Amino acid sequence: MSATARAIDVLQLGAQRAICCWQAGELLIDPGPASTLPNVLAALDGMVPRAVLLTHIHLDHAAATGTLARMYPELEVYVHERGARHMIDPSRLLASATRIYGDRMEMLWGTFEPVPADRVHTLAGGERLDFGDSGAFEVLYTPGHAVHHVSFLSEDGGAYVGDVAGTRAPGSAVVLPPTPPPDIHPPDWQASISALLACAPERLHYTHYGVANDPEAHLRQLSERLERWSAAAAAHDIDGWAAIARADMISAGAAPGELEYQLGEGGREANYGGLRRYWDTRPSAG
Ligand SMILES: [Zn+2]
Questions:
Q1: pTM of the model
Q2: What's the 243 CA to ligand 1 centre distance in angstroms?
Q3: Distance of alpha carbon 12 from alpha carbon 231, whole angstroms
Q4: Domains of the chain by range and CATH?
Q5: Where are the beta strands (DSSP E) in 193-237?
Q6: What is the Å distance from ligand 1's center to 286 Cα?
Q7: 27-53, pLDDT tens digit by residue?
Q8: Cβ neighbourhood burial of 146 (10 Å; 0-12, 13-18, 19+)
């Protein structure tokens, strides 16, 4: 038995279809920022969530979790073992995010409340989670975008993939790799894409933004683009890399809004920085 999936638009700063929270029955998969939780609660219309499943703990996916745990005393949280301690004590996570976002933290993400340790279920990958009428899921460890990233493969054929399947604007054919620091690891990411392909899901439910009904073509395009952009980051400075990425997106048919999202102010530095950090810090570097 599995429940119908619904994308709830969290409407961060009013932006439509930028970040979604997936709802499956009484489950929320990546509830989004704390600042946008009222929008999610309004969409739930009184439904009491039973569990939060986190693909990873980045603030755009997970910041609302502690607030939900406080509001709903029965709610349980599922997260990879390498992300769990940051949900229980977010101080280090918030310190590193504050270095990036500064005094925009509260406006962007709201208050990241800790999750009580006894409500956190840690995952390593390989688990089977059965939530009755809300669905049953196999947990797949999918690092590369984040070292603690997992995907939830529903028995109904839907795969909840967070950011490991990339980003793709609604209606667009262009799949993009989000590559912000600090964990970007292209070889691990490619292995995760291969693992997802091997599972042959019928649909990809991703966070930015929507559902892909062509999982194989979507994942293969992401794999090829990640390969090209990673190699470009190894060989070029940020301007050279951005020129290559821009030309690639234009030839793929990307709209101006997609170019702005990926390579505009902030996005350009973050997406180059994460790839560059991989090349500069890998053990064989230098
Ligand atoms: Zn994200």
A1: 0.96
A2: 24
A3: 33
A4: 5-227 (3.60.15.10)
A5: 203-206, 210-212
A6: 31
A7: 999 999 999 999 999 999 999 999 999
A8: buried
